[in-house]
Design brief:
Elements (H helix, E strand, L loop, with lengths): L1 H10 L6 H12 L8 H10 L4 H25 L1 H11 L3 H11 L3 H14 L4 H10 L4 H26 L4 H32 L6
Helix pairs in contact: 2-4, 3-4, 3-9, 4-5, 4-8, 4-9, 7-8, 7-9, 7-10
């Protein structure tokens, strides 16, 4: 099912209304959809490199709006809607573990929002729903989404516009690894600073 969904998402890049589909996929990815918007964004930017930054802006705006929708699911309808969505994707355990970590630790949640937006670590839909469930400040949430998602999409746009098809393998393979390592490093740095500040424990969960 996942493979078919992935292939269907990729096929949208060739459609006449591909930009509308990019907006839709970017929106739903941040709240309940399984396939990342990059799957659609990369082939579209390769096909029309002059529109790469326009596509990055579309993806950033609608990914942020989707994040707000995920936030609303967590804030207003966690048990009715958000919890079944997480359970369907097998992410409920990850959600519960993260919730235990960030309870009363909103700085950590902001870091998770940043790393999720940049490297999908953890999945963006999990973090946006979690942000609403623990009632993090909406302004900080939105700013974090804009910065993290914008950094990812505009970096991809720059690479694709500058290097074209030659950079595609790097983006699909190595860039993801680099982003994940950087995100993990940021999280570990946070816990290290917390320990150095005298909390007495490396992890808060």
């Amino acid at each position: 099912m996942i493979k078919r969904l992935y292939e269907w998402t990729m096929s949208l890049a060739a459609r006449p209304r591909a930009e509308i589909w990019l907006a839709i996929v970017a929106f739903v990815e941040s709240s309940f959809f399984l396939i990342p918007a990059d799957v659609l964004f990369v082939p579209m930017a390769l096909a029309r490199p002059r529109r790469a930054y326009r596509l990055a802006l579309i993806a950033t705006v609608f990914s942020t709006l989707g994040g707000i929708a995920g936030y609303a699911l967590g804030y207003y309808a966690f048990d009715i809607l958000a919890k079944p969505v997480l359970a369907f994707y097998g992410k409920l355990g990850a959600f519960d573990a993260l919730q235990a970590c960030v309870q009363g630790d909103q700085q950590l949640l902001l870091i998770l929002l940043t790393t999720s937006g940049l490297a999908h670590l953890p999945p963006i839909k999990v973090v946006t729903i979690l942000a609403g469930a623990v009632h993090i400040g909406l302004v900080f949430f939105v700013l974090s989404c804009i910065i993290a998602r914008g950094a990812r999409f505009f970096a991809l746009a720059f690479l694709l516009r500058r290097y074209g098809e030659a950079i595609r393998h790097f983006i699909e393979r190595r860039l993801k690894v680099i982003a994940v390592v950087a995100a993990a490093g940021l999280i570990l740095l946070y816990f290290g600073l917390k320990l150095a500040a005298g909390s007495g424990q490396l992890l808060s969960c």
